[in-house]
Amino acid sequence: MTPGYAMQEAHIYVGDLSPTTTAPGQYGHTVYFDPLASSYSYTFDATDTNGDGIWVIAHAVVNW
Q1: If DSSP codes are grouped into helix, strand and coil, which group holds residue 15?
Q2: pTM
């Protein structure tokens, strides 16, 4: 994050198929930060089984 900004929560989807929802809280990987975080990393395991790529969607609630 740029200095002065911090994450309150993060919602991440990584998968072979198109997500079934547009609601970030239902992406399957949600993290709440207390205290607030300026960075986050996580390793996902996804395989492209149908040859059309991998979906990656990230959404964060940010305080400034």
Answers
A1: strand
A2: 0.85
Return d(Cα 25, Cα 3) in angstroms, integer. 26
Picking from 34, 42, 43, 21, the residue whose alpha carbon sits closest to that of residue 61 is 34
> Which amino acid belongs to residue 47?
T
Which pLDDT tens digits describe the chain residue by residue (64 residues)?
999 999 999 999 999 999 999 999 999 999 999 999 999 999 999 999 989 899 999 999 999 8
Here the tokens at position 27 are 């992406």
Structure tokens at 12: 């991440």
CA 11 to chain centre: 4
